[in-house]
Amino acid sequence: MLNSLDQEQSCHKRGGWMVNGLKLILLLFALACAFLQYTARRNVELGTDELGQNLTPLTSMRTTKSSSHATLAFNDTNFTLPPWAQTYFEWHAEQRLLMSPTSNHRYLIYTCLQSDASCGGLSDRIKSLPYFIYVAAKTKRVYLIHWNRPCRLEEFLLPPMNGLDWTTPDCILHYVSSLNHPIVTGRLQDQHGGSDYYNAQVGPGEGSRAFRRSFRSLFFKCFAPTPPLASAIDRAMHQLQLAPGDYAAAHFRAKYNEAHPLSDTLVKALARNVINCASHLRRTIDEPIFFASDSQLAVQSAVEYRDSTHRLIIVSPTYNEPLHLDKATSGNPSDYYNVFVDLFVLSNAHCIAHGQGGYGRLAVLLSHNASCFKPMVTGGRIVECKWQ
Q1: Which DSSP helix (H) or strand (E) runs through 348?
Q2: Could you read off the pLDDT of 138-151 as tens digits, one per residue?
Q3: Which pTM value belongs to this model?
């Protein structure tokens, strides 16, 4: 799960003018890296560099500016971190100012590279965030993220103002291995995102639901949408005429098991069923239900259900099937925007019903009330819901 790429090694001492020259070059690189990290903070460029790939150090160094774009999906800034996380975030910020190719920092980098056989979808990659940050805190490592599959993560999400800066500078990616810095990379594809471990470690101080209670705060202290994505979320909320916390939501993953695809009849029936499950979560009978799915057929079924019953079921008027981050091949970031837009519109609901897969559960974790949800599948069996 966590694979060590480099073991700590002592640097060999060398004499003569070659050593002095090398030190001077490394010092210049360190200063350049620190300067760009501290002052430039500019927009990222699209790239697909992999960990350790040869890079031209000063011309290819990429840093990011924090996203401060105001959006309905992120207007709640009342996030309280667990005490251990607050301490780690402060320590992490201090270490970011000291990072350079020649510093002796230790790193924990969450990676998803073009060369990897599989990284999982958005839920697989995001749900484990509290687990990895906690491991980094316990082992005194600087937590960073390096994705370039299918696009750089910075094309979708950026560190927020005064949040944890997880971006990985190219100068660190390139020089860390050559300077024998200890670097650990990891990925975790687990249905529960490492919550069992997290709760066991943190639970005595924060309760048995520590993972669920802290997820939203940790996420929004790490991520904010890029301005283009934030605009897309705003447009969706406006077009759907939805206000955060004023609706229920339903999500149906129709393509959860593509080796054994569901029949068209079953897709339509389950789409209607999960909407019925969401109706149990409404606070009033005139509260709308937002429906999202990875299937055009499921969305079509929801529209037909709405039109035939005149119930308040909301779907996107410009629906396109979201691309799977691990299976699609497009290198255009905007092709994946609806994956994130649907997630944040779902998470703005006050309660969520969902079927199989981690995407719906991720929306629940990001929502204002992670305890208000209704799974359509329990113990491997479908729960039949009637409209109410």
Answers
A1: none
A2: 999 999 999 989 99
A3: 0.79
